[in-house]
Design a protein that fits this description.
eight-stranded mixed sheet, Aminopeptidase, Alpha-Beta Plaits, hydrolase, 389 residues, alpha/beta, elongated, hydrolase activity
Length: 389
């Protein structure tokens, strides 16, 4: 029996874990039940277990043989503040909370891999199973790093996986370089001088200034960033005034910036600063620009990506590994791990990406048919990375 057939025979148990986690979603740094479930199962497998890493994170340590080599595998555990609209039996039991991004599947698959590797330790070295909290915007990865992740658990490389709607089940996508973008936020406050709307000459209109600023910001990417590179600047908020006949004192604008390269990210920020200063001077308004860097771009290291592509081809078969598809303008805090260690973050096919199958959708559900492929990928990755020297 080959590995996939073996894991299909074990799929029911992993699916039950996945659905249990789905029914009990927990938000960032609140993953107490999920973390306890993970830790209890690791300990039941005889795997050395460390709780409370990065607040609610869990790390399992599995050793075999005598090699000093080590590899890290990461799964995220948190859910989203979304009201689920599914009615299947494993729907969320917690109003306003939902596993709408598949972290329930990621956690279950890594537990499935831990179980298989504990029973079949056909490798030489150490595997660190990293169950990370708070991926959805709160930064669980830097919390684990700050808690000494890479000093307490010294690994050569770290690997991540995310289900990907739109990629067929049985396929894995691998990027040799950028896979996800940064996720930055900006806030702009424009202070003018309020006046009667019928007498605008008596004031400084921040609404007019804001309208000009929004339009000018659209030139930042189109006229500053090399067309061969990629960036997105989206204004998503514009707050001004409360009355029909009053020009307000203040306008507030907000939005997001996405880019795949750190230098492009810096270029966009600098250009926005210049535009804000110039538009403010032109209209006689005081423009305060605040730029907050969020998750950095997720950039795979090439040797590790090529290694993962070979493993994916072994698991899924020739022709079922997608090499260098278009990266996503979404963001992922696995990027912080890749700033510390070489590694690779892959996309696991989750089936059709239509309707409720899309990520962050109230009708989303992880595709359990993908479980054997995800578990097999983790197992083969360990066995090939930690092969006998």
């Amino acid at each position: 029996m080959n590995l996939l057939d073996t894991l299909r025979a074990e799929q029911a148990a992993t699916t039950a874990i996945r659905r249990d986690i789905h029914a009990h979603p927990e938000l960032a740094f609140e993953e107490h039940r999920t973390a306890a479930l993970v830790a209890d199962r690791l300990e039941a497998l005889g795997i050395e277990t460390h709780r409370g890493v990065g607040k609610t994170g869990v790390v399992g340590v599995l050793r075999a043989g005598t090699s000093k080599r080590a590899i890290g595998l990461r799964a995220d555990m948190d859910a989203l503040p979304i009201q689920e609209k599914n009615d299947f039996t494993h729907h969320s039991r917690h109003p306003g909370k939902m596993h709408a991004c598949g972290h329930d599947g990621h956690t279950a698959m890594l537990l499935g891999a831990a179980a298989h590797l504990a029973r079949n330790p056909e490798f030489d070295g150490t595997v660190y199973f990293l169950f990370q909290p708070a991926e959805e915007g709160e930064g669980g990865a830097p919390e684990m790093i700050a808690d000494g992740l890479f000093t307490r658990f010294p690994m050569e490389a770290v690997f991540g996986m995310h289900n990907w709607p739109g990629v067929p089940v049985g396929q894995i996508a691998v990027h040799r370089g950028p896979v996800m973008a940064c996720a930055d936020r900006f806030d702009i406050e424009i202070r003018g001088h309020g006046a009667h709307a019928a007498m605008p000459h008596q004031g400084i209109d921040p609404v007019l200034c804001g309208a000009a600023l929004v339009q000018a910001l659209q030139s930042v990417v189109s006229r500053n960033v090399d067309p061969a590179d990629s960036a997105v600047l989206s204004v998503t908020q514009f707050h001004a005034g409360d009355a029909y006949n009053v020009i307000p004192d203040v306008v507030r604008i907000g939005g997001t910036v996405r880019a795949f390269r750190p230098d492009v990210r810096a270029q966009v920020e600098d250009a926005m600063q210049r535009v804000c200063a110039g538009i403010g001077a032109a209209f006689g308004a005081n423009v305060h620009f605040s730029y907050r860097r969020g998750y950095p771009p997720t950039i795979n290291t090439v040797p590790e990506a090529e290694f993962c592509a070979r493993v994916a081809g072994e698991v899924c078969g020739e022709g079922n590994t997608l090499i260098d598809p278009k990266p996503s303008m979404g963001a992922e805090d696995f990027a912080y791990f890749l700033q510390e260690k070489p590694g690779c973050y892959v996309w696991l096919g989750n089936g059709p990406g239509e309707g409720g199958c899309t990520l962050h959708n109230p009708h989303y559900d992880f595709n359990d048919d993908a479980i054997p492929y995800g578990v097999a990928y983790w197992v083969r990755l360990v066995e090939r990375w930690l092969a006998d020297a």
